Amino acid sequence: MIKEKGILFVLSGPSGVGKGTVRKALFEQDTELRYSISMTTRNPREGEEDGIDYFFKSRDEFEKLVSEGELIEYAEYANNYYGTPKAYVEQTLEEGKDVFLEIEVNGALQVRENFPEGVFVFLIPPSLEELKDRIVSRGTETEDKIKARLEAARGEIDMMDKYDYVVVNDDIDHAVEKVQSIVVSEHCKRSRVAKQYKQALEDDAK
């Protein structure tokens, strides 16, 4: 019997493109996907549980894991580290479950270096004008911050060629359908199926 291994899917794109919205809508429809649990040095908030919401670590523990290459990406925000633990991802994939990671562009490029077998999906807005409208509609950004975000978005969109797939987020349902199609097509890839099939034949011959 073929033992199918899970696949790591990385959804990325410029800030304001709707990564979180697409990911939530996808998970409402696809209960088989596993969301990657992040590791952090910040204190747990009320109701948060270790190993469910985050893996909570001390700063020393986190830095030790970084030095040992046990994180496939990490970054520091507001004096706290956040990252994706390699062991959790690998264990979940071995169980045959797909892991889904929603992340900023810089983090995705780190994952590409440390976990090149992942499948990288770039979410883009229909236009920069649309992206600006989405950032403005949040009502949380000053004019200068909006300009800075758009400038950063232009630079991030230039990194599109580092990804395997590009999905235009013109409509949430359409974007989710496209991501689901990518998941199906990746599981049908000859290179992936052949490897699993050969392993099954070898195991059968023993």
Describe the structure.
The protein is of the alpha/beta class. The protein folds into 2 domains: 1-33 and 98-206, 3-Layer(aba) Sandwich (Rossmann fold); 37-96, Guanylate Kinase phosphate binding domain. Helices cover 47% and strands 19% of the residues. The protein contains 8 helices and 9 strands. It has helices at residues 19-29, 59-67, 86-94, 105-114, 128-137, 143-157, 172-187, 190-205; strands at 8-12, 34-35, 39-40, 55-56, 71-77, 80-85, 99-103, 119-124, 165-168. The strands form 2 sheets. The protein has a 5-stranded parallel beta sheet with strand order 2-7-1-8-9, sandwiched between helices. Helix 1 (19-29) crosses helix 7. The chain is globular and about 65 Å long. The model has no long low-confidence stretch (mean pLDDT 86). InterPro entries: GK/Ca_channel_bsu, Guanylate_kin-like_dom, Guanylate_kinase, Guanylate_kinase_CS, P-loop_NTPase. GO terms for molecular function: ATP binding; GMP kinase activity. Keywords: ATP-binding, Cytoplasm, Kinase, Nucleotide-binding, Transferase. Residues 6-184 form the Guanylate kinase-like domain. Its EC number is 2.7.4.8.
